[in-house]
UniProtKB/TrEMBL annotation:
<dbReference type="InterPro" id="IPR008432">
    <property type="entry name" value="COX5C"/>
</dbReference>
<feature type="transmembrane region" description="Helical">
    <location>
        <begin position="20"/>
        <end position="37"/>
    </location>
</feature>
<comment type="similarity">
    <text>Belongs to the cytochrome c oxidase subunit 5C family.</text>
</comment>
<keyword id="KW-0812">Transmembrane</keyword>
<protein>
    <recommendedName>
        <fullName>Cytochrome c oxidase subunit 5C</fullName>
    </recommendedName>
</protein>
<dbReference type="GO" id="GO:0005743">
    <property type="term" value="C:mitochondrial inner membrane"/>
</dbReference>
<keyword id="KW-0496">Mitochondrion</keyword>
<keyword id="KW-0999">Mitochondrion inner membrane</keyword>
<keyword id="KW-1133">Transmembrane helix</keyword>
<keyword id="KW-0472">Membrane</keyword>
<comment type="function">
    <text>This protein is one of the nuclear-coded polypeptide chains of cytochrome c oxidase, the terminal oxidase in mitochondrial electron transport.</text>
</comment>
Length: 64
Protein backbone atom coordinates (compact mmCIF):
# COMPACT_ATOMS: atom_id res chain seq x y z
CA UNK A 1 0.00 0.00 0.00
CA UNK A 2 1.60 3.20 -1.15
CA UNK A 3 1.33 6.19 1.14
CA UNK A 4 -0.40 8.91 -0.86
CA UNK A 5 0.78 12.44 -0.42
CA UNK A 6 -1.79 15.17 -0.02
CA UNK A 7 -0.90 18.39 -1.74
CA UNK A 8 -1.15 21.06 0.94
CA UNK A 9 -1.06 24.68 -0.11
CA UNK A 10 2.09 26.45 0.92
CA UNK A 11 1.29 29.18 3.43
CA UNK A 12 2.84 32.46 2.47
CA UNK A 13 3.39 35.40 4.76
CA UNK A 14 1.75 38.75 4.26
CA UNK A 15 2.98 40.88 1.40
CA UNK A 16 4.71 43.87 2.95
CA UNK A 17 4.18 46.10 -0.07
CA UNK A 18 0.48 45.17 -0.21
CA UNK A 19 0.05 45.85 3.52
CA UNK A 20 1.74 49.26 3.19
CA UNK A 21 -0.43 50.16 0.19
CA UNK A 22 -3.61 49.15 2.03
CA UNK A 23 -2.50 51.13 5.09
CA UNK A 24 -1.81 54.23 3.03
CA UNK A 25 -5.15 53.94 1.23
CA UNK A 26 -7.09 53.53 4.48
CA UNK A 27 -5.15 56.40 6.05
CA UNK A 28 -5.94 58.71 3.13
CA UNK A 29 -9.63 57.78 3.30
CA UNK A 30 -9.78 58.48 7.04
CA UNK A 31 -7.86 61.75 6.63
CA UNK A 32 -10.22 62.88 3.86
CA UNK A 33 -13.30 62.21 5.99
CA UNK A 34 -11.75 64.03 8.96
CA UNK A 35 -10.73 67.01 6.81
CA UNK A 36 -14.21 67.29 5.27
CA UNK A 37 -15.71 67.24 8.79
CA UNK A 38 -13.26 69.96 9.85
CA UNK A 39 -14.12 72.13 6.83
CA UNK A 40 -17.84 71.71 7.55
CA UNK A 41 -17.41 72.80 11.18
CA UNK A 42 -15.27 75.75 10.04
CA UNK A 43 -17.97 76.79 7.56
CA UNK A 44 -20.66 76.65 10.28
CA UNK A 45 -18.56 78.77 12.62
CA UNK A 46 -17.73 81.32 9.92
CA UNK A 47 -21.42 81.57 8.93
CA UNK A 48 -22.42 82.07 12.57
CA UNK A 49 -19.95 84.91 13.10
CA UNK A 50 -20.87 86.53 9.78
CA UNK A 51 -24.57 86.55 10.74
CA UNK A 52 -23.69 87.82 14.21
CA UNK A 53 -21.66 90.66 12.73
CA UNK A 54 -24.49 91.62 10.35
CA UNK A 55 -26.92 91.70 13.25
CA UNK A 56 -29.20 89.06 11.75
CA UNK A 57 -28.82 86.87 14.83
CA UNK A 58 -28.02 87.53 18.46
CA UNK A 59 -26.60 85.50 21.31
CA UNK A 60 -28.76 87.39 23.81
CA UNK A 61 -32.17 85.89 24.50
CA UNK A 62 -35.07 88.14 23.55
CA UNK A 63 -37.32 89.35 26.34
CA UNK A 64 -40.93 88.40 25.98
Amino acid sequence: MAGGRVAHPTLKGPSVVKEIAIGIALGLCAATVWKMHHWNEQRKTRTFYDLLEKGEISVVAEEQ
